[in-house]
Design goal:
Blueprint lengths: L1 H17 L10 H8 L4 E5 L2 E8 L5 E7 L5 E6 L3 H4 L9 H8 L4 E5 L4 E10 L3 E9 L5 E8 L5 H4 L2
Antiparallel strand pairs: 1-2, 2-3, 3-4, 5-6, 6-7, 7-8
């Protein structure tokens, strides 16, 4: 029994080690792509490049790899967080700004009555709650409001789904 427990512990350790971020600041872009795969999207922000990686269960994570002008990794972080959404400036941010801040939405919807386009982002709020942040744009593509609530994909009994 002791050997089985030790074997399970070793297997778990190896599995968890595989979950660690496989890239480090200073890594060349080619190494980042080699380890993480082809990005879902690439953006230019000034003289830096952002590589977007959609990950996680149910699309609740998006990581951005920031690449310096000399082709080296500056940072790699999860961007679907309340802190990151809070950097979106209502009345100023554009669709392009939002893409640079939190990446592509899970889905979009147009509300014809109020003439707003909503971009939905499913995420794990505080690492615990299945939440859905909606960023609303007017017809000019400017953010008019953000709205956070429970993600209906996980609220079957509550929403009658």
């Amino acid at each position: 029994m002791k050997n089985l427990s030790q074997a399970l512990l070793v297997g778990l350790s190896i599995t968890l080690a595989g979950c660690a971020v496989p890239v480090n600041p200073g890594d060349p872009e080619s190494q980042v792509i080699s380890r993480l795969g082809k990005p879902n999207a690439t953006y230019q922000e000034g003289n830096e490049r952002l590589l977007e990686y959609d990950q996680g269960a149910f699309g609740q994570e998006t990581h951005m790899a920031r690449i310096s002008p000399d082709g080296r990794l500056i940072s790699y972080k999860q961007v679907l967080t309340l802190e990151q959404f809070a950097t979106i400036k209502v009345g100023q941010a554009t669709k392009n700004d939002v893409l640079l801040i939190v990446g592509h939405p899970l889905d979009t919807i147009f509300y014809s009555r109020v003439k707003l386009e909503g971009w939905n982002y499913g995420f794990k709020e505080s690492g615990v709650w299945n939440s859905l942040m909606t960023v609303y744009f007017d017809e000019a593509g400017i953010v008019r409001k953000l709205e956070n609530g429970p993600d209906p994909r996980f609220e079957h009994s509550r929403f009658g789904l």
